Amino acid sequence: MKTVETEFTADNLTLRGTLHLPDAPAPPLVVGSHGLEGSQNSAKQMVLSRLLPENGMAFFRFDHRGCGKSQGDFVADTSLEKRTRDYTAAVSHVLGLSLTSGRLALFGSSMGGATCINAWQALADKGFSPMGGVLCAAPVISRSIKNIPLDANGDRPALPLEFFKKNLLFNILDKARALHHVMIFHGDADEVVPVNNAHDLFNAMQAPKEKVIHKNGAHQMTAEADQKDFEIRALDWFKSIFKGSLKN
To answer: Which residues, in sequence order, are CB contacts of 134 under 8 Å at separation 6+?
Structure first.
C-alpha cells in the first residue's frame, strides 16, 4: 500500500489530507468526511484507511477547514455549506491526481454524514457521480440534535448558541432523496443525534439501501461489538458498490 500526503484549496483556504492507495492500478475511491469537532484521524476513518486499501480500494481522509492541520478558524469557518464545498473540492482534487479511477463512493460520520448527503447532488452536477456510500449517525434535521457542545475544549473556545443558530441549522431530507446504494449505521441510544434521523434518512433514500441500528449504541460507536460490526458490514458494502472493478 502507498500513502500520499497532499493539500488542496477551498474558498482560498489550504486543506490537508492523506490518500491511501492499494497495490492495484486505478482503484475505486472512497472520500471521507469527519464529524463536527473531529479530524482526518478520527477512529472510523483510520479503520477505513487500513481496510479499504487492503481490499483494493483507495481512501482519502482530510481535515475540514478550521480542523486538524487545515487552515481556517473553527468558529468563523464552520457551516454545512462550507463543509460541502470542502468535500467537493477534496473529491475534485483527488480525482485530478489521476491515481484512482473515477468510480467514487462517500463516507461520513455525524456532521460528516450530513456533509455527504448535502454534497451528493453537487458532486453529480460536477460530473463526479457517487456510486454509493456509508453514513454513520448522520443528522438530517439539525433541530433534533441534543447535547450541543457549547463548552470550550483544548482545540477551540466556548461556542455561543448563536453559532449553531447561524451556521448549523439545516433540514436535508430533500437532499437525501438523491442517495442510492447507501448503508447507514446508527445507535438506538445515540445521545447526540436521535435515532429517528436514521429512520427518516432511510425512508427518504432510494433503493438499494440498508439500515443498521445498533442496540444500546452510542453516538461515537464506543462498543467494541458495534465497531467490529461496522468494519465487516461497511467493507462488504463498499465491495458491493464497486463490484467488478476491484483488482486486489
So the answer is: 105, 106, 107, 182, 183, 184, 185, 234, 237, 238
